[in-house]
Specification:
The chain has 4 helices and 5 strands. The chain is an alpha+beta fold. The chain is globular, with a radius of gyration of 17 Å. Pfam families: DUF3700.
Length: about 110
């Protein structure tokens, strides 16, 4: 998984910062980073968040015991990896339909 956000959204670790005078294009401006991720992970999904950033993920080498689920409700995005044991109880508690998955449950609980 790869996520890149515009610096006003979140602060990046100092080790990942590029000095402003380097002349390098931003990963958001030129789209190179998202395209590169997609090229080395065929079948990956890239979600463009406009000027705020992007998310990309691949189901390649996924552990069948810890599945990855991507869910979106309104403007909330959730990439969930794992398993919730009391799904039926939580669906009833949050008045969710039968097709709601763990990602949607996490968003609704949040």
């Amino acid at each position: 998984m790869l996520t890149v956000f515009e610096k006003s959204i979140t602060k990046s670790p100092d080790a990942l910062n590029i000095p402003d005078d380097s002349g390098a294009d931003s990963a958001l401006n030129n789209g190179f980073l998202a395209a590169h991720f997609a090229s080395i992970h065929p079948g990956s999904v890239t979600i463009n968040l406009g000027s705020s950033g992007f998310m990309a993920y691949s189901l390649e080498k996924q552990n069948p015991l810890l599945p990855k689920i991507f869910a979106v409700v309104d403007d909330i995005f959730c990439l969930f990896q794992g398993h919730i044991e009391n799904v039926a109880v939580l669906k009833q508690q949050y008045s969710l339909n039968m097709t709601a998955n763990e990602g949607i449950i996490v968003i609704e609980a949040y």
